[in-house]
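Posted in: Structural Biology > Protein-Ligand Complexes

Title: Requesting predicted complex, heme C in pocket

I'd be grateful if someone could produce the 3D structure tokens for the following input. Sequence and ligand are given below.
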Amino acid sequence: MANVIQDPATHPTAILGDFSTPNPLVTFRKEEVAFTYGSKWKQRYFTRRGDDYFAFPAQWDVQNKTWRRYYVEPGTDWWAEHYPADQMQRPTGPLCDGCHSVNYDIKTKAVTEWNVGCEKCHGAGSLHVEYPVASTIVNPAKLDGERADDVCIQCHSQGQPRRKPIDGVYYDWPVGYQPGDRLSDVWTLEEHELGKDTFTHWPDGSAHKNRMQGNDYVQSQMSVKGVRCFACHDVHGTPYEADLREPGNAICLQCHGPQLQPGPRGTIEHHTQHAATSEGSRCAACHMPLIARTVGNVNVRSHTFTFTFPVATDRDGVPNPCTSCHTNRSTEWATDALKRWPSVSSWRVAK
Ligand code: HEC
Ligand code: HEC
Ligand code: HEC
Ligand code: HEC
Ligand code: HEC
Ligand code: HEC
Ligand code: HEC
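-- Reply #1 --
Done. Output follows.
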């Protein structure tokens, strides 16, 4: 999380996009890039005009190594109607920088530092530097209930500020929020209507877009029972994918298994009906499918921790994990198989 934004003047290797062959989407030169934004899924390019930054209208799809258009169409994201249609008149200060820097000041447009620095999650640190004891800093692990996850959800969500506009400007991030506050006092999560496929949500209410782990997770029983984002992730860095505390199924099996309260009751093979080492036995494959679109066909994982039955795909188009992996099979095939699974209720399969 520490290196999303880089200045190509000091980090010449930061630019991943291919500028060597002309491409009609790429209307700008490498030399005009003040900042690169992102490196894992997609990279966008900022340029400076006056005291604001703007994102050029093309982005590099890192995984497919190709250029794609970057433009938020009117009628999609809530803020689009409050901004000119021209991409180069949509400043990144109100639309991006609050989540991609520390202490973005809406009056001076200055930041303490770019990227996700310590103070973004631990609050102001100067007193702590002077008096380095636990009581002079916010430790998210010691916050009550939702306030702990709010530290993450301030950035990992699609929402709208409760107060808008502020001095005539529409911000797409929770202006004024500090770790330890209750985020819902200043921020609302994007609404969804069951049965409707929208810019942000699938018809079942799960995230259709990236950066919605918070929107998803607050719906989960795990969140209700007090399991926090940082039970699974250590944001200070780990050797594993997505900064997980343990790799693969190990992260889930700390709390789940036949002897443990949250279940499931049987062995892994009994629960998943695949060999324990099969891809079809990975907890995340069925409970965290890749359905939240970030760029092109590249998706990130759902965080509702439900299971989408194949009938839901027929009913309203939400992808189900079975036929997303078994791409040559039908939803009827998957439903028939599931009806024979010992730990699945046939009432729920046909729902
Ligand atoms: C993205 C949010 C985030 C950022 C950025 C972050 N932290 Fe943390 N930090 C947390 C959370 C959440 C916890 C509590 C859970 C845990 O220990 O991981 C924590 C806990 C800690 C702890 C207590 C660990 C313990 O053993 O009790 C220390 C010390 C700490 N962070 C230092 C830092 C420093 C120094 C930085 C900057 C280099 C930093 N953190 C950046 C979220 C963050
Ligand atoms: C200031 C905004 C901000 C906050 C606060 C924040 N994140 Fe992030 N997070 C980001 C951004 C931006 C990225 C994308 C990083 C990149 O592309 O390198 C990210 C990426 C991640 C990733 C993926 C890392 C990877 O290598 O795939 C995880 C996991 C994550 N964040 C978890 C958390 C958790 C848990 C918390 C709360 C303790 C948290 N984040 C708080 C902005 C934030
Ligand atoms: C509400 C907070 C928030 C706002 C506003 C926001 N981002 Fe992000 N952004 C994140 C988080 C969190 C992630 C990583 C999680 C994810 O994508 O699922 C991310 C991911 C990204 C990535 C992908 C990083 C990678 O390594 O692939 C890019 C590029 C990016 N943001 C650019 C922007 C731009 C440009 C804007 C403004 C138009 C913007 N963001 C607005 C929080 C935010
Ligand atoms: C820190 C402990 C902990 C970890 C780690 C954990 N879980 Fe859970 N999980 C729980 C608890 C507690 C419940 C709620 C049980 C209840 O409601 O009785 C739960 C419930 C669930 C449920 C039930 C459905 C629902 O609505 O939430 C699923 C599915 C699930 N977890 C999947 C996972 C997966 C997949 C992983 C690994 C990525 C995982 N869990 C990691 C503690 C944990
Ligand atoms: C092949 C798909 C698949 C895989 C892989 C899978 N599950 Fe499930 N899981 C299901 C289905 C189907 C249900 C029943 C959902 C329902 O009734 O709504 C379920 C339900 C659950 C539940 C809640 C009810 C119960 O049975 O106690 C938990 C907890 C759970 N799974 C945890 C896990 C864990 C942990 C893993 C990894 C070891 C895992 N699952 C792997 C398909 C899967
Ligand atoms: C029960 C465990 C668990 C909890 C709780 C959890 N995550 Fe995750 N998260 C995972 C797993 C597993 C992955 C997928 C890693 C992989 O692809 O191998 C993941 C992936 C991610 C990613 C990377 C994007 C992607 O989908 O690959 C981000 C960002 C993220 N989580 C943020 C969060 C935030 C923010 C919260 C709290 C609102 C949260 N997570 C809660 C287990 C968890
Ligand atoms: C991430 C990929 C993945 C997911 C998700 C998955 N499977 Fe599988 N499945 C496999 C693989 C790989 C095999 C081959 C045998 C093995 O490795 O266990 C398999 C084998 C099977 C078989 C036996 C062979 C056949 O093709 O008839 C059935 C039946 C099956 N899966 C049903 C399901 C159902 C139902 C679901 C959803 C609940 C599901 N699978 C989810 C990967 C997956």
